[in-house]
Amino acid sequence: xxxxxxxxxxxxxxxxxxxxxxxxxxxxxxxxxxxxxxxxxxxxxxxxxxxxxxxxxxxxxxxxxxxxxxxxxxxxxxxxxxxxxxxxxxxxxxxxxxxxxxxxxxxxxxxxxxxxxxxxxxxxxxxxxxxxxxxxxxxxxxxxxxx
Length: 147
Prior knowledge:
Elements: H1 7-10, E1 16-17, E2 35-41, E3 44-46, E4 49-54, E5 56-63, E6 66-73, E7 75-78, E8 81-82, E9 86-96, E10 99-104, E11 109-115, E12 120-131, E13 134-146
Antiparallel strand pairs: 1-12, 2-5, 2-13, 3-4, 4-7, 5-6, 6-9, 7-8, 9-10, 10-11, 11-12, 12-13
């Protein structure tokens, strides 16, 4: 795989698909988001899954309207099973007028949001997972604070 962690494959060993969601509102237009961020994500729950992500750290690189970077997690726990530490890449990201859109590892974990200040951002995520042969869409929220 070339990466320590791919959310879609790690979460209970399932394959992930792509999905996109929207986000309304505006944020600061000219804030550079480059730097270290501590993030939280709401649990992924439903259809027999109960997954939590702990100690998500994101290193962002913001150049003009492009967002890229890397992330690490301390642990992902799904239905009582621990994955341990891992990491990956922030890809296909944009930041325009405070609106954020990016993916973790590839386009299979989609995040939308906005920066509400130079040090805070929040939004929603969507991931489509196959659980025991059935495909389900999971949504939740995320928030991040500059470290």
